[in-house]
Amino acid sequence: MQVLKFGGTSVGTPENIQIVKEIVFEKAQKDQVIVVVSAFRGITSKLIDCGKLAASGNSDYEQLLTEIKNQHLQTAKKLLSGDAQPALNTSLKSLLNELEDILRGVFLIKEVSVQTMDRISCFGEVLSAEIISTYFRQSEKSTFLLNPKDFIKTDSLFGRANVNFNLTNQLIAENISNSFKISVCPGFLAANASGRTTTLGRGGSDYTAAILAAALDAPELEIWTDVSGMMTANPSYVKNAYTIEEIGYDEAMELTHFGAKVLYPPSIQPVLKKGIPILIKNTLKKEDKGTRIAEKSVSNEQMISGLSCIEDIALLNLNGSGMVGIPYFSHRLFETLSDAKVSVILITQASSEHSICVAISQEDVEVAKAAVEEHFQHELSQQLINPLEVEKDLSIVALVGANMKNQIGTSGKMLSILGSNGVNIKAIAQGSSEKNISVVIEKKQIKKSLNALHESFFLSDNKRVNLFIAGTGNVGKALLQQLKKQQTFLNEKHHIDLRITGIANSKRMYFDEEGLDINKPMDKLLSSEKTMHIDSFIDEMVSMNLRNSIFIDNTAHKVIANTYQKILANTISVVTPNKIACTGPFTQYKKLKNTALRFKSNFLFETNVGAGLPIINTLNDLIKSGDEILEIEAVLSGSLNFIFNNYDGQSKSFAEIIAQAKEEGYTEPDPRLDLSGSDVMRKILILLRESGLETEMDDIESVPFIPKECMDAPSVDDFFKLVSKHEAHFKQMINEAKAAGKKLKYVARFKDGKAQTGLQQIAPGTPLYNLEGKDNIVLFTTKRYPDQPLVVKGAGAGAEVTASGIFGDIMRIANTF
Ligand SMILES: NC(=O)C1=CN([C@@H]2O[C@H](COP(=O)(O)OP(=O)(O)OC[C@H]3O[C@@H](n4cnc5c(N)ncnc54)[C@H](O)[C@@H]3O)[C@@H](O)[C@H]2O)C=CC1
Ligand SMILES: N[C@@H](CC=O)C(=O)O
């Protein structure tokens, strides 16, 4: 015997009922089938409304009743043909007349009892079963319409009656005939000992099906609904959520309790007790596999079966010294809430017993608060407990999986993922069964949290990282190219999905939560009508509240650098080649680092020194492992190295070589920063700060090599003109070096606690002498490297290498999410 139950949507339209027929008839070829049906979608609510309207003396119930009548008669007309149709119409009309009579009576006496409401509300199932059984019978004569009142026997608790299982099981065995291929049974209704109609409460049709399946020892109970089973998370929040193919009863219960409303747990108790598996299937996508809920959880690799959530939660926090060591305190709290019909969803209590915190539905807050305050009036007045604290607009997110108990660190991982996304956890509960870890968070963080957790716990998922990019000049453009080139590789090899969710240049900005087309991200930016303003950019980025977000500053702008503090405090990481933030006052640099630590964001700026070379990371590793910097000797300007490697005082002028360095993207957007030595001062300052020294820009001595008049030029154009004017000065510098058999290098040095930068003649045979092109070199002499310094050397300027350094920082952060 097979038992199938079809929900309201499955039987909601004539077209859907035709699909139901296909499903049932296919099954009936193999074995007898019992088909339990719900009311057509929306009918039960309409019936209840009719009852309430009639009871309040409002004749509008008649209009609603007409709608109910028409929907059933029209469905019957569409489904049936020939003689069957008038016959069905007669029986439908007789049922509808009975309903009309009851409602008329209610209207006249202006009163409806729960018992009468049971009679009214179950008409949906009765009418639906009448139509469906007649429709089936038209093609399959061996179809029978069951009356559950004959065999499902309950007490007289109208509205939510309790089943007498002994009697019911016996009556089912006696009443369900083996002689019909298909039996159609209306769900939800039953009868008490004296034959009066009762109903089975919430999930009633599932309950009917479960009672039948259990009594008949069905091999499986099939629940056909409008979703393809239980999903790994709510798909309206998590696009990558997918159907769980197999799950244990316990896990299914946990998921259902916390939001996956595919089943109502109490309604499946009868099959659960007998270990009968339940198959959840989608009527409108019958080819989908669905979810099989079986007695034992399936031992698969997947540690987490699903994520679920409940929205609109409030926390009640009762605390006070008067609670400590007093027996029955929690008992009294729960009893008070229970008496007030407030259901407690989650509980946490500190072992000190100083406080107890419960999560309830937000809609129960007022009732709960009033009840608790009244009950604990004495303790409150004696200040033994503090006034009840209520926090609203919260949600619960739960991680569910039977395999969690075999895994160390699951809750740690969960909390760390939420923390690195700036999600504050208000309360946490983990049962000793370890099948569920639930956290209470702000409601606005739900989408971000579910997605971040889903990507981290479901191995099939790619972890999405959202990039907000400001600056699309030399470096910015090179970065966009590299992101495009690496996208497939990162997806396939590292399961990281980098999306550009925001982009800006100095004029415009553009946002797309799903990510811009990586092949042409500039198109949308260039046609955007949104004017770039950094405050609006940040507001939009923060309000998008996306998981795993990184802001990348590819500008050289102070205004942008000044916003890092705010960005980091919103748990959005910052990656930047812009040196301004790290070279302001030491207190500001320190504050940024502390903010990043406090808000679990990352602040990375490897490209501030030596472009893509791993200089800051190397230094960080030395310092973190306890080493100490004794000396630094370095060439830190790619552009100056390029200029002095290419200027010979003959073929091209000094101004022409600077222009070439600018053209090739080695200089700062304003080359005066390079030529003045300021850029090198910034870099050595950053290295000293990263070495642990509290240093300011003024602590660095710098000897300029460029005439003061050039540096005082009011614009970059004027600067070039003045450099041309002073060509003889530069010629003399290079000729003197050549005559001494040396090369000119702009050197930064830290020795004996002092930092200096300046142009020097470098003799052959020293590490700085053979530094080609735009290369940089840094020699760290440390306690561990006292004789032979640790050397980092390579290309130290240029858009490509800088972009690849930025990419490296992005990946370092992406791997922490
Ligand atoms: N070129 C190199 O070798 C290296 C450069 N850097 C740094 O990289 C950064 C970028 O350099 P480049 O790409 O060469 O500069 P660039 O001048 O080519 O590009 C700057 C970009 O920033 C945008 N921008 C300027 N102000 C803005 C604002 N207020 N809001 C939004 N966007 C704004 C511009 O529209 C442009 O797209 C600079 O901070 C530079 O110091 C760091 C290491 C090496
Ligand atoms: N302008 C800089 C580039 C990177 O910081 C340089 O010349 O080194």
From TrEMBL:
ACT domain span: 399-474
Claim: Kinase is one of the keywords in the record: yes
InterPro entries assigned to the protein according to its UniProt record, in alphabetical order: AceGlu_kinase-like_sf, ACT-like_dom_sf, ACT_Aspartokinase, ACT_dom, AK-HD, Asp/Glu/Uridylate_kinase, Asp/hSer_DH_NAD-bd, Asp_kinase
UniProt name for this protein: Bifunctional aspartate kinase/homoserine dehydrogenase I
Keywords (A to Z) from UniProt: Amino-acid biosynthesis, ATP-binding, Kinase, Lysine biosynthesis, Metal-binding, Methionine biosynthesis, Multifunctional enzyme, NAD, NADP, Nucleotide-binding, Oxidoreductase, Sodium, Threonine biosynthesis, Transferase
Pathway entry: Amino-acid biosynthesis; L-lysine biosynthesis via DAP pathway; (S)-tetrahydrodipicolinate from L-aspartate: step 1/4; Amino-acid biosynthesis; L-threonine biosynthesis; L-threonine from L-aspartate: step 1/5; Amino-acid biosynthesis; L-methionine biosynthesis via de novo pathway; L-homoserine from L-aspartate: step 1/3; Amino-acid biosynthesis; L-methionine biosynthesis via de novo pathway; L-homoserine from L-aspartate: step 3/3
Family: In the C-terminal section; belongs to the homoserine dehydrogenase family.
Organism: Marivirga atlantica
Reaction catalysis annotation: L-homoserine + NAD(+) = L-aspartate 4-semialdehyde + NADH + H(+); L-aspartate + ATP = 4-phospho-L-aspartate + ADP; L-homoserine + NADP(+) = L-aspartate 4-semialdehyde + NADPH + H(+)
Gene Ontology biological-process entries: homoserine biosynthetic process; lysine biosynthetic process via diaminopimelate; methionine biosynthetic process; threonine biosynthetic process
